[in-house]
Amino acid sequence: MNGDIRKIRLLMELRRQGVSDTGVLSAMERVPRELFVPEAFRDQAYENIALPIGAGQTISQPQIVAEMTAALELGPRLKVLEVGTGSGYQAAVLAHLCRRLYSIERHRTLAVEAEARFKALRLGNIVVQVGDGGEGWPAQAPFDRIIVTAQAEMVPEVLLSQLREGGVMILPISDSGREQKVVRLRRTADGVERESLMQARFVPLLDGLPSEAEGK
Q1: Strand pairing of 191-199 and 57-59?
Q2: DSSP state for residue 98 in the 8-state scheme
Q3: Are β-strands 57-59 and 126-130 bridged in parallel, bridged antiparallel, or unpaired?
Q4: Residue 194 located in a structural domain
Q5: Within a domain: residue 213?
Q6: What is the Cα 26 distance to its own chain's centre?
Q7: pTM
Q8: Domain for residue 212, yes or no?
Q9: Domain of residue 155, CATH code
Q10: Burial (CB count within 10 angstroms: exposed 0-12, middle 13-18, buried 19+), residue 85
């Protein structure tokens, strides 16, 4: 089965699973997921599953990518911060739906590989930085939207401070240390509104840059 047929089958599955945002589905149709997975897993690129990408990281399940992207309520004028570039797949989807995307990755090898993919796909509205995602990107704040693709134990106040009033942040949180839930935070004039969206499983959000041993 060729890639186009597999992609169509995946998009149909996402619709059956309740993903109805046509903009998100169109963006995912435009992004070749097989370019974002290791060659050994390319035959599984359009399965609705997470896959390993190296450095102990994964490329998220397409359904989670679709649902988190839709929950961000993106628009063509918005400036977005992504914490955790990983393979770059989520960023590539976001790039089709916002004005500019700033993406932080703590593993330099993953960041370099992702940048090469963005260049090959001519996604010129993505800027990648190697750094501690928990610190955000103060020089570019405030952001209209923030998406965190790693699980936090609590809401990172530093990131929340970089969210514009009226802005939305999506991230997985494990308050109890066990069950992870993706939550949507909406910053208002009166504070922060919190809404639980779905269960998920992400790698943990870690402080600082990786040691040489961790990156292997």
Answers
A1: unpaired
A2: S
A3: unpaired
A4: yes
A5: no
A6: 17
A7: 0.91
A8: no
A9: 3.40.50.150
A10: buried
Amino acid at 204: P
- Tokens representing 151 are 């699980």
> By percentage, how much of the chain surpasses pLDDT 70?
91
Q: Which residues contact 73 (CB under 8 A, 6 or more apart)?
A: 145, 168
Name the residue with tokens 């679709």.
66
pLDDT per residue as tens digits for the range 134-193? 899 999 999 999 999 888 888 889 999 999 999 999 999 986 656 788 999 999 999 999
Q: Please state the separation of Cα 49 from the chain's center in Å.
A: 15
Per the document, the length of the chain is 216
Domain range spanning residue 24? 3-199
Q: Dihedral of the CA atoms 6, 12, 17, 22 (nearest 10)?
A: 120
Interatomic CA distance for residues 174 and 70, integer angstroms: 21
Q: Indicate which residues carry an active-site annotation.
A: 60
Alpha carbons 128 and 18: distance in angstroms, whole number: 31
Q: Which residues pair with 54 in a beta bridge?
A: 57
Half-sphere exposure of 108 (CA within 13 A, CB side): 4
- Domain count along the chain: 1
Report residue 120 as tokens: 């090959």
Answer yes or no: is 205 within a domain.
no
Which tokens go with 168?
């939305």
